[in-house]
Amino acid sequence: EHLQTQHVSVPPGARIQYTFPQLFFYKPNLWWPNGMGKQSLYNVSITIDVKGYGKSDSWGQLFGFRKIESHIDSATGGRLFKVNGQPIFIRGGNWILSDCLLRLSEERYKTDVKFHADMNLNMIRCWGGGLAERPEFYHYCDVYGLLVWQEFWITGDVDGRGIPVSNPNGPLDHDLFMLCARDTVKLLRNHPSLALWVGGNEQVPPPDLNTALKNDLKLHPFFENQSENAMSVEDMS
Amino acid sequence: MAEIGKMVLDSGWLAARSTEVKLTGTQLTTTHPPTGPTSPWMEAVVPGTVLATLVTNKTVGDPFYGLVNETIVDIADSGREYYTFWFFTKFQCKLSGTQHLDLNFRAINYSAEVYLNGHKKDLPKGMFQRHSLEVTDILNPEGTNLLAVLVYPPDHPGSIPPEGGQGGDHEIGKDVATQYVEGWDWIAPVRDRNTGIWDEVSIYVSGPVKIIDPHLVSSFFDHNTRVYLHATTELENKSAWVAECSLNIQVTTELEGSICLV
Q: Other CB atoms closer than 10 Å to residue A137's CB: what's the count?
């Protein structure tokens, strides 16, 4: 029942952004972390047909309905997480990368990630000195219910510490860093397991990078303003 | 007419050290393509790193065993050109009239020059960004396409102090690249600093209009009983005329147990 078709006109040579009217779901199956419930996943597919040509492109993604919240607890200074409104005790594993020759296959990721789920963990923290992990890693975290804490490429050892202090201002090319960060966010942002972006390992990125990351990753105002009980048009109908 | 969608290029790759190849990228992808894994060319691991290819071909020992890593020359001693490698492959693709082809690299460490059928395209630096090249106009009409990629290591590979330590001399931090490769308290230095085509290479066939990076967001109300899915996507019209499109989104759930869809 969740099928929607919109007519869109795209000028020659143009690149446009299009937002579908929101799709309403009543009591969908929610995605839960390992140990809290099922990791229900939906197939979301987008296709485009061009008049006079036929099917022009298609895209698909496994998607999980889940709401992840976290905040710093004033009493302990630790970060508390909630998933779908339920508090969760984080049992996490440290992750650098699977192979230092980067022979990163689907089978390898499936085995590694399932191992973490079998150890009854519910989060994997991807360390800033390693990689922005790959879509296959995130796919199996979606399937096995491992939340992911993904750090960007700043570490306390290499950036801004030591005697003498090394790389006090992080990498030389800040525009390149933000270009890579933005593209990485686009690559990974639809995975339900992605729980938290973190500027770096044991270190705050240089102020301009940290500000840009926070700005790019903050919740879109549209979602800030929606009141809890707003009725949408299709609900009325 | 080629089928719409992605084809991963993960077999039939060859590699050679750049200092041992006297040809240009244009020659490699037109008049003098390598014929097979004969020196200086060898079978390549793509996706993977230069060192993965060298270990697979047994031209170096496997750094995972014993102190073998000590026998592999470090980039600080050999110089960057020693780990600057050519990667070569062929692929078949015959498009119909209004189809388009993109050549996609999901990640390369650290920068590269791409040659396709004699045409050169430079890829910008950075270990963590995707590259998508529109190659429709430079495909070979009869269908066989020759692809060569010259991959350069990070700009600042650094060197490893005798005492080792976290991140070696920290030079790698000047680049936008993984930092563990200079060694840490839990791992020895990686000699090629993970240089290579380390993630998926693919070609992607689309019609005149292409879907780019959709973004899915869900919002929750009434204790998760009322939920909305918000979807935004970019669309690119590669044709020279206005494209009137029907854009469809469909959400289906995996069928469980003995339930079947009629």
A: 29
pLDDT tens digits for B76-114? 999 999 999 999 999 999 998 889 999 999 999 999 999
Task: Output Rg (C-alpha) for chain B, integer angstroms.
Answer: 23
Q: Which residue in the set B172, B246, B249 is minimally distant from A7, CB to CB?
A: B246
Interface of A with B in 8-37 (CB under 8 A): 8-20, 22-30
Of A13, A129, A170, the CB nearest to B184: A129
pLDDT band (50, 70, 90) for residue A29: very high
ipTM of the complex: 0.95
Spans of chain B below 50 pLDDT:
none
Q: CA-to-CA distance for B259 and B262, rounded, in angstroms?
A: 10
Nearest-angstrom CA–CA distance, A8 and B237? 11
Which B positions 213-242 lie with beta carbon below 8 A of chain A? 213-242
B68 three-class SS: helix
- Across the interface, whether the CB atoms of A50 and B128 are under 8 A apart is answered no
Mean pLDDT of chain A: 93
